[in-house]
Amino acid sequence: MPAMNSTLTSFSFPTPTLFGVRALQELQGRLVKLGVRRPLVVTDGGLARTEAFSALTMTLGEGGRDRDWFLYAGVHPNPIESDVVEPAALFREKNCDGVIAIGGGSPLDAGKAARLLVKRPGFNLTKFYDESDWSGLAPFVAIPTTAGTGSEVGRSSVITLDATKRKAVLFHPELLAKLVILDPELTRGLPPKLTAATGADALTHCIESFTCPQFHPMCDGIALEGVRLIMEALPRAVRDGNDLDARGKMLVAAAMGAVAFQKDLGVVHSLAHPLSTICGMHHGLANALCLVAGMKFCATRKPGLYRRVGIACGLEVMKCSDAEADARTIACVAEFLAALGLNARLREHGVKAEQLAALVVQAVDDPCHKTNAVLVTAADFRRLYEEVL
Ligand SMILES: NC(=O)c1ccc[n+]([C@@H]2O[C@H](COP(=O)([O-])OP(=O)(O)OC[C@H]3O[C@@H](n4cnc5c(N)ncnc54)[C@H](O)[C@@H]3O)[C@@H](O)[C@H]2O)c1
Ligand SMILES: [Fe+2]
User: Fold this and answer.
1) Can you name the CATH fold of 17-187?
2) So where are the chain's domains?
3) Whether the predicted model's global pTM rises above the 0.90 cut
4) How many angstroms is it from 261 CA to the middle of ligand 2?
5) Closest ligand (CA of 155)
């Protein structure tokens, strides 16, 4: 813990969130309260063919498309700059007055960031941090249909920029949603593999934020309860997609993971980000395949780091030695992921040994490991990638 008298910390949990089966039905009334009459809906092509999207269409009124609500459905997985530029242009062309993003983290991040370019058309996103005044962004409503990233409650948007070909984290409090709708019905159609991989992202958020050394006991509590919920609900949601209790718990746990990582993240996310930008891997899957190796690496340098994570997993590790508490917790997480089919090696997902050098360069540059529980060097990244390759 930092010296209490020398560090000023700000705590903030401000996103209004509606949770429950059929919460989506509240959307129209809430839009009126927000003063949004001509929303732009941002999503991806796959999602636009799902029942979750049909439910939104029904709510907004089928006839309203291209009249009083508008659609951008071109967001890529691991969004790129055009996924921000194009909806911003459509927003202006159609005189929209708010953004509704529906989908996984990709459309949520793209829709969230599009408002930046609505405010400042033509702005160069690589200069994002040179601009301090992002006040007055268009209102943003976030409707997640995966339970993983928690982007809906986050102040950041993760976009691969053209100039750098790396994932940039655009962070600003003004990016926050004015309303989040967590409706378990909307995740019902998410296939088991994506349910597992996105859930593993949420688990990684909870574990990495809890073990990140910054002083934030509120986030720590939320992270540990997130771990407990995911351990209970994720296997059920993967087994039976119609289990709305499990789906609901996962949606809340994913949001909790993202609230918790206001504290920041760690080495596993720095390993995962280059696997998406260089190898095109899904973000949650990349985290899942690196999580156990990352935990082992941290535990050997900071024994006892995972004891309370183990307790949240339901293990009786209170009285064990530090080494045993870590070993049992890591084994539990490894078994949990394996039972979800998330124990493959990177090469089984197309990663090649020749790509390791480029992966290491990007991982070193990634900001997440700067807040890891222990220092991570380029040589460590190399060893970790080799371990999971
Ligand atoms: N902003 C943040 O705080 C934050 C945090 C973590 C990750 N991210 C970012 O989020 C992105 C990953 O998001 P994701 O894991 O949710 O995946 P995603 O948004 O890329 O979606 C993956 C696939 O799932 C499909 N899908 C989504 N919901 C569905 C449903 N209900 N039924 C059927 N198919 C559905 C989509 O069409 C897509 O093909 C990455 O770019 C990552 O960097 C952002
Ligand atoms: Fe993540």
Assistant:
1) Rossmann fold (3.40.50)
2) 17-187, 192-388
3) yes
4) 9
5) 1
